[in-house]
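Deliverable D2.4 — example input (structure tokens):
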């Protein structure tokens, strides 16, 4: 596969207008920017929604997936540095929450900490099961694991040819986190919101509570009903109300335009 170095790592999902807050969304393993279209459509007009599109998926499918966490973080930061200045929040879904946390750490070190960090359906960085070896599972084991997590449609998991289109990106994303040793960092001095769903057997309330150890600012946990691990797309309006309230509370001018 050919790597296209100039391809954008961030895709704007919201219409171009005078937004006052930016929300950067990081998807689950193998996921792309389309993961966040339901959420983007439910958020108010003052939120500028950007979603990560990593190599190996969607329009970047012909590029080699990235296995190095630092490479992905650096590339995303490069694009955020040249983006128009706005209060910026991070929203990470599933393993994307770990990438969101790394971005928040690096941005804070540069003196431009995110306004909020949303950790959605994920264990905390220090609690993440790096010894599961998902990236090295057999095809059958990987399909069974993803089916149990309820983050990929059965129509893809049941079709070997279709699953071929996603498999390399999924394995790369899991490898990115499973092969990177946890590096303790100074607690983030920003508001942190952990979110999960009742019925998600993979990420329990006790797992979400662990996110409190990653920050020294305000901390909240929101549990949604229904949807299990895939609640991100099952009730976007309910999720958007929680997200927009936290954005407005931490960027008071956000909803005034």
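Example output (designed residues):
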């Amino acid at each position: 596969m050919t790597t296209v170095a100039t391809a954008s790592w961030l895709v704007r999902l919201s219409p171009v207008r005078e937004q006052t807050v930016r929300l950067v969304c990081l998807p689950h393993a193998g996921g792309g920017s389309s993961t966040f279209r339901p959420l983007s459509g439910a958020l108010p007009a003052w939120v500028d929604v950007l979603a990560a599109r990593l190599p190996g998926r969607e329009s970047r499918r012909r590029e080699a997936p990235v296995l190095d966490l630092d490479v992905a973080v650096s590339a995303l930061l490069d694009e955020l540095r040249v983006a128009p200045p706005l209060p910026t929040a991070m929203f990470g879904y599933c393993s994307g929450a770990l990438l969101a946390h790394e971005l928040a750490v690096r941005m804070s070190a540069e003196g431009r900490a995110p306004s909020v960090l949303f950790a959605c359906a994920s264990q905390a960085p220090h609690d993440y099961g790096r010894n599961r070896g998902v990236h090295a599972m057999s095809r059958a084991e990987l399909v069974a694991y993803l089916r149990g997590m309820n983050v990929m449609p059965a129509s893809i998991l049941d079709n070997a040819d279709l699953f071929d289109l996603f498999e390399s990106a999924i394995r790369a994303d899991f490898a990115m986190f499973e092969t990177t040793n946890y590096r303790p960092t100074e607690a983030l001095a920003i508001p942190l919101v952990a979110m999960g769903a009742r019925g998600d057997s993979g990420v329990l309330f006790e797992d979400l509570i662990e996110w409190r150890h990653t920050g020294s600012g305000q901390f909240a946990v929101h549990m949604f009903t229904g949807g299990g691990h895939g609640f991100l797309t099952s009730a976007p309006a309910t999720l958007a109300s929680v997200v927009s309230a936290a954005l407005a509370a931490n960027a008071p001018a956000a909803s005034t335009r």
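The chain is about 35% helix and 15% strand.
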